[in-house]
Amino acid sequence: MTGSTYNYSYGQLAVRVTVTGAKITGLSVVGLQTAESYSQQIADQVIPMLRQEVLAAQSVRVNGISGASYTAEAYVSSVQSALNKLHFK
Amino acid sequence: MGTVVTFHVEASHLSEANVREAIAEASKMMHRHDDIFSTWKQESPMSLLRRGELSLDDAPSEIAEVLALCAEARSLSGGWFDASSMPGGIDPTGLVKGWSAENALGLLKDAGVTSAMVNAGGDIACLGSPSTGGRWKIGIRHPWRADALACVLEVNDAVATSGEYERGRHLIDPIGRLGRQPAAATVTGPSLAFADAFATAVAVGGDEAFAIVASLDRYDAYLIRADGSEESTEGICLVNASADK
After folding, report:
1. Inter-chain residue contact B186 with A66, CB threshold 8 Å
2. Cβ <8 Å between B6 and A77
3. Closest CB to B122 among A48, A67, A80
4. Which of A66, A81, B16, B126 has the smallest CB count inside 10 Å?
5. How far is the C-alpha of A57 from the C-alpha of B76, rounded, in Å?
6. Running DSSP on this structure, what letter comes out for residue A3?
């Protein structure tokens, strides 16, 4: 299930979430456009770590994440919208 | 404010349609705040004020309100949060995102929502309890460990995190002091506007600002220093993440 495309200040991205049974088993970024190369560099660094976080947390252990901004929020929002489409709780 | 805002409503006395309407109103309010305060938009009232093309009396009343809060936050933080010492003129950016999210949550509450969270790019205002019971569990992103949250905190009202990870340096030390920056600072407390400002203060002022925030009634701080060492004040409620699994 692919989440909505989210705009952040320096680009836009969309995330595909794979759910097997009741577990998130895969995440991939299917749409990423950045406004400039610096944003691309940041996105290259940040997206793999966000992927690990979501897979580790399985989206249920925390109600929210503080410290996330920009790319992180777009990523989390897109993951959330994909989960919403799947009615994954 | 250049960020994504998530509205999370868990319980209310409202129908789903009315919840949607309340969220739409809260969202509209935050867009209005962005239009007023954006320092990126050249024609925003805040930008005009900074260039001396608009007087405070002629500006939307929210600007005077926010600048008064900035002055209060400056005083409470011992000068470590200082919106007036920014390059390019007075800049309330370090407080306004939290202030806006706090007001958006207030609007949801007024509409009849009893359990909700507004997350403005990591600055989070909470109301009531999550449907799972207890207090809101908020993960704090670790500034550099790729695969982990630094910790999970239990939060009653508000939590904000500030630091220089991810986007490069964007914090300004108002006192112009040189030295290594702390990596990340998280502040909890009753007001998200102040938590936002104080998190910036501790991220800039390190241990000195941490001690000042620790002395403030109902505000608590969690600091991860550049060397990886951590410190938190008494009221910071850490959830043992591994025990939670």
Report:
1. yes
2. yes
3. A67
4. B16
5. 36
6. P
Return d(Cα A68, Cα A74) in angstroms, integer: 10
Does the global pTM surpass 0.80? Answer: no
B119 and chain A: CB distance < 8 Å anywhere?
yes
> CB–CB of B170/B181 below 8 Å?
no
What is chain B's percent helix, strand, coil content, to nearest 5? 40, 25, 40
- At A14 the three-state DSSP class reads strand
| Whether the predicted pLDDT of B47 surpasses 80 | yes
Domains of chain B: 5-241 (3.10.520.10)
Q: Which tokens sit at A86?
A: 């799947």
Query: Under an 8 A CB cutoff, do B149 and A46 touch?
Result: no
- The share of chain A scoring above pLDDT 70, in percent, equals 7
Three-class SS state of B161: strand
With a CB cutoff of 8 Å and minimum separation 6, the contacts of A50 are A71, A72, A75, A76
Token pair in block for residue B128: 């009531």
pLDDT of residue B74: 96
Find the closest chain B residue to A81 by CA distance.
B6
